TrEMBL record:
Annotated ranges, domain AAA: 3-178
Organism (species): Herbinix luporum
Name listed for the protein in its UniProt record: Sporulation initiation inhibitor protein Soj
Domain of life from the UniProt record: Bacteria
Pfam families membership: AAA_31 (PF13614)
Family: Belongs to the ParA family.
Subunit details: Dimerizes in the presence of ATP but not ADP; ATP-binding is required for double-stranded (ds)DNA-binding. Interacts with DnaA.
Catalytic activity as recorded in UniProt: ATP + H2O = ADP + phosphate + H(+)
């Protein structure tokens, strides 16, 4: 059965989408069958994997409001072993349209449970907010992966995120776990990055990945070309980082 990992942090700009795109692609490169789910109305994971999000006829929005099936919305990307459930700005309207719908927190789960066995890993890119869409991701997920940017306000909002995860666990998804924390945008030249890593390790009682994703120009460039980093620049520090993260995720999966 596929392992479902939601990538969440309501703080923007921490590398959620970058992690969703590149972790998915590097898991696929390791010959794992991967589904990326873009549940962010910005649709950046969709465009980052080379899909024209503006002209899509069917997206996760149509699936969640009941207009389309999972298979009608699914796209096989040009990258081997990697499919995507795409998103675009239409999804922003789902928040309002789902008001009053029974079990609206489980809409995504009801679809994904049916196809879970078809994949080794399902990676969900959450929006930078604690919304109905994020709650849907958390009820669907087995675990939450939290990217933390190596900057001064790294821990800001983390308490609220952990509170939300615990609420979802208590009321909606008792089996939900915290997959762990991964540091992103690490700059070895600055004392600040090193201090942030130490500070988080001292204050967080959760698994922290050994892999640290470096601040890397090639990582920032790749989405504009619609390519994951392992394809855009296979030998870059960013590609090395996400391959290491993929290997750690695969290794952790053996114990879950």
């Amino acid at each position: 059965m596929g392992r479902v990992i939601a990538i969440a942090n309501q703080k923007g700009g921490v590398g959620k989408t970058t992690t969703a795109i590149n972790l998915s692609a590097c898991l696929a490169e390791r010959e794992k069958k991967v589904l990326a789910i873009d549940i962010d109305p910005q649709g950046n994971t969709t465009s980052g994997l080379g899909i024209d999000k503006i002209n899509l006829e069917k997206t996760i929005y149509h699936m969640m409001i009941g207009d389309s099936t999972f298979n009608e919305c699914l796209i096989n990307t040009e990258f081997e072993n990697l499919d995507i459930l795409p998103s675009n700005v239409n999804l922003a309207g789902a928040e309002i349209e789902l008001i009053g719908i029974e079990d609206r927190e489980y809409i995504l789960k009801s679809h994904i449970d049916r196809i879970k066995d078809d994949y080794d890993f399902i990676i969900i890119d959450c929006p930078p907010s604690l919304s109905t869409l994020t709650v849907n991701a958390m009820t669907t997920a087995d675990s939450i992966l939290v990217p933390i940017q190596c900057e001064f306000y790294a821990l800001e909002g983390l308490t609220q995120l952990m509170h939300t995860i615990n609420l979802v666990k208590k009321r909606l998804n008792p089996s939900l776990k915290i997959e762990g924390v991964v540091f992103t945008m690490f700059d070895a030249r600055t004392n600040l990055s090193l201090q942030v890593v130490e500070n988080v390790k001292e204050n967080l009682n959760h698994n922290i990945y050994k892999t640290i994703i470096p601040r890397n120009v090639r990582l920032a460039e790749a989405p504009s070309h619609g390519l994951p980093i392992n394809i855009y620049d296979s030998k870059s520090a960013g590609a090395d980082g996400y391959r290491q993260l993929a290997d750690e995720v695969i290794e952790n999966d053996k114990y879950n």
